Amino acid sequence: MKNFIRLLMLLAAANLCQMAFAQSYPSRPLRVVVGSPAGGPVDIVGRIIAAKLTEVTGQQVIIDNRVGANAIIGTDYVAKSAPDGYTMILATAGSIAISPAIYPKMPYDTMRDLAPVMQVTTTPEILVAHPSLPVKSIKDLVALAHAKPGQLNFASGGNGSVPHMMLELLKSVAKIDMAHIPYSGGGPAAAAVVAGQVHGMFAGPPVLLPYIRAGRMRALGMTAPQRSPLMPELPTLAEGGYPGMNMVDWYGLLVPFATPPDIIARLRDHVVKALADPVTRDKLLAAGAAPTSSTPAQFGEQLRDDLARWAKLTQSVKIRID
Q1: What is the pTM of this model?
Q2: Which helix (H) or strand (E) holds 32?
Q3: How many CB atoms are located within 10 Å of the residue 32 CB?
Q4: Which of 230, 245, 260 is the last residue of a domain?
Q5: CATH, residue 201
Q6: What is the spatial distance between Cα 197 and Cα 225, in angstroms, rounded to a whole number?
Q7: Where in the sequence is the domain holding 58, given as residue range(s)?
Q8: CA-to-CA distance for 15 and 33, rounded, in angstroms?
Q9: Structure confidence by residue, pLDDT tens digits, 174-213
Q10: What are the DSSP calls for 165-178, one per residue?
Q11: Taking Cα atoms as reference points, which of 279, 301, 303 lies closest to residue 291?
């Protein structure tokens, strides 16, 4: 009986310590890992959020670019970090839901090694081409690809990224042959398009909009279900005759799996407050990323659905990277 009482007292003390730890969180700088280079779409969104989150928490929020293997390197770093709420990954479906379907050897398991905090934004993909390419629409591009099979080179931010998958899906549904050229992130891929080293790419608005507005890229279509207020003149790919290309990417925060639920809840509350700031929302919307909000449970369900959906899609287009 005495041992049982002692156990209860120890458990109560542990709970009190955890509650005190959660209430004081955060008490030092936070690290947001981005698995792509500076200047890419995830990096742009991350820096907008980090700036406001620094004000909300009273602690510096650092963006840590850990680049490589379609953000697998950065994601694995977070999965193996201390589960204390101070290290998190701002991820897309690429390293979280697509890579597990196409890489036979993954250093982490999404649902076992990472805990969802919340989805923070959604963003469509834009299909762009270098201005020298004689195309002005998705139909023009498909016709040119049919006329020149295998001669068009399209970039992406890496093997297994959402832009890569959109390219493979387009090749499949339009029955065209275009070469895929992977880069280390959306920023370097966009620079290659601008330089004329490749003919075009899919990518998110945060990295492409400045180039499109400057006339250095030509937008051919968007994967959103409806036209964007940012570019109302740009048709969706569904309008261009490819309804199967309707797909929106998300950016979300995840932490190491064993992070205490109280810490996850406090972190989410801070991020929700940052996203509610009108200036921050306007900056995100201007970059083409729509702020969203979800609970950890809702985001977890989204991850499970996406793992299944992308596994099915990658099998249908026969993508496997050894």
Answers
A1: 0.87
A2: strand 30-34
A3: 21
A4: 245
A5: 3.40.190.10
A6: 31
A7: 2-121+250-316
A8: 29
A9: 999 999 999 999 999 999 999 999 999 999 999 999 999 9
A10: HHHHHHHHHHT---
A11: 279
